[in-house]
UniProtKB/TrEMBL annotation:
Its main location: Golgi. Belongs to the KISH family. It is found in: Golgi apparatus membrane. InterPro entries: KISH_domain, Ksh1. It comes from the Eukaryota. Keywords: Golgi apparatus, Membrane, Signal, Transmembrane, Transmembrane helix. It comes from Petrolisthes cinctipes (Flat porcelain crab). The keyword Transmembrane helix applies. Involved in the early part of the secretory pathway. This is Protein kish.
Length: 72
């Protein structure tokens, strides 16, 4: 089933994208800082969410991991 139709899968994809964009921006900021608008700007916005809300994103990742490992 596609991640668009399953809420748990969609949430996993969004969390992984936030974590990935934040990781990429920490090592190569010029890749994401070039375009802050448009469709590619979505990755920059996800990196900003990961930077500013990192304790909450980390907690969400841990909760999602527990959910996938033990309750799926």
């Amino acid at each position: 089933m596609s991640a668009l139709f399953n809420f748990q899968s969609l949430l996993s994809v969004v969390l992984l994208m936030i974590c990935t964009c934040t990781y990429i921006r920490s090592f190569a900021p010029s890749l994401l800082d070039r375009q802050k608008t448009g469709p590619v700007g979505t990755f920059w916005k996800m990196a900003r969410i990961g930077e500013r809300k990192s304790p909450w994103v980390a907690a969400a990742c841990v909760l999602m991991a527990v959910n996938v490992l033990f309750f799926s």
